[in-house]
Amino acid sequence: MRISIVGAYGYTGRLICAELENVGIPFSIFGRNVKKLEELKEKLKSVPLAMALDMRKEEDVQLVINESDLIVNCAGPFTEEAQLLTRSAAKNGKKYLDITGELGFVRNSYMNNHAESLKNKACLVHGCAFESLIADLIIHLLVKGQTKIKSIRSFYWFNQKKLSPGTRITMKLSKFRTLEKISDGTWSIGNIFSDQLKAHWSNSLDTQFKAVPYPLPEIAYAYWNYEPKKAESFILLTEDEAMYVGRSKQSDEPAIDALEKLREFKPSGPTNEELNAQKSILAIEIIEENGTVSSAVVNARNMYQTTALAIRLCVEELIQNPAKFSGVISPAKIFDGKEKKTLKALNVEYEIENKLIIYDV
Questions:
Q1: Which residues form the domain of 101?
Q2: Is the domain of 203 the same as that of 284?
């Protein structure tokens, strides 16, 4: 299987390259900057092809498609950069993975590419990253049988202050995105202020939090797989941190212009020491229509390395079972029946509980 990594020299892209090379999986590399590609190629043992391209040009996207059976896309922001690639992958029957955290992009991909992917036996899997893959795996563990679901909610807490350049750009562009959620069984628009919750993490962090809406791909996964009445995702912030959320100055500037300006500023990502100090906690809460509440808490470290591991595991599954999956699917579908094994391979600890977070709405 010919594997290509788009955005290979980016912060997370390099971690993914190292992860695949460590297990002997060869791959080609693509990106916007030919010099950075050549520098990366010199550090890798076996790269059949390194090529510079512009993901907004159809002829460049076709080059990747022609050279690939499986494409790993690390080149965000995906809303602005990956539309042509996903459409072409669906049309040409390719396997496609990415690490996006952009819910709108994922939702639109399903609407635009799912039928075409099924027709051509393509497989598009979005959000194969720390956040949404782990949430999806845990939800698969908690939902049993034909249970009718009233609500699925995910809550994240992070201690890291240093972000990768790509994550920083994605968060800066969040003001251009729609705050989407599932309400009354259908897609609806949320409100950054009125949808906030007060939360107390009863047994992990002895702190009062604001649960601030932050739309992540697991909302789409929940909707596709379980059709809940409500699905939302949140970031847990202190009262002081929450004061600054949603108060950035609005602009009539197109998102693509803002992206180009953000790329002019090139901060470094976390150091190895900072990566190893990263700590994240994820809580999942599921409420069935009969009132039964199921929940789980996940503890993880080093979210960027976890993302690289997640991509490697997805790639290995697709290599082993290339014809098994088709359509636009949630990442946990790749690991159906292997959820516990996969969570262990991702080096995350989790505990299933009956009651985790208390809300004061």
A1: 3-129+305-338
A2: yes
Q: Are 283 and 166 part of one and the same domain?
A: yes
Residue in the block written with tokens 């609005």: 250
- Considering the domain architecture, whether residues 103 and 143 belong to the same structural domain is answered as no
Domain co-membership, 242 together with 313: no
| Number of independent structural domains in the chain | 2
Residues 105 and 76 sit within 8 Å (Cβ to Cβ): no
Distance CA 83, CA 124 (A): 12
Same domain, 275 and 310: no
Instruction: Note the pLDDT tens digit of each residue in 322-354.
Output: 999 999 999 999 999 999 999 999 999 998 875
Give pTM, 2 decimals.
0.91
* Cβ 60 vs Cβ 39: under 8 Å: no
For the chain, give the mean pLDDT.
88
Q: How confident is the model at residue 178 (pLDDT cuts 50, 70, 90)?
A: confident
Structure tokens at 242: 């929450």
Q: Find the CATH number of the domain harbouring 329.
A: 3.40.50.720
Q: Lay out the sheet containing 95-98: strands in order across.
A: 50-52, 28-31, 3-6, 70-73, 95-98, 123-125, 327-329
Cβ 333 vs Cβ 272: under 8 Å: no
Quote the distance between the C-alpha of residue 315 and its chain's center.
Answer: 15
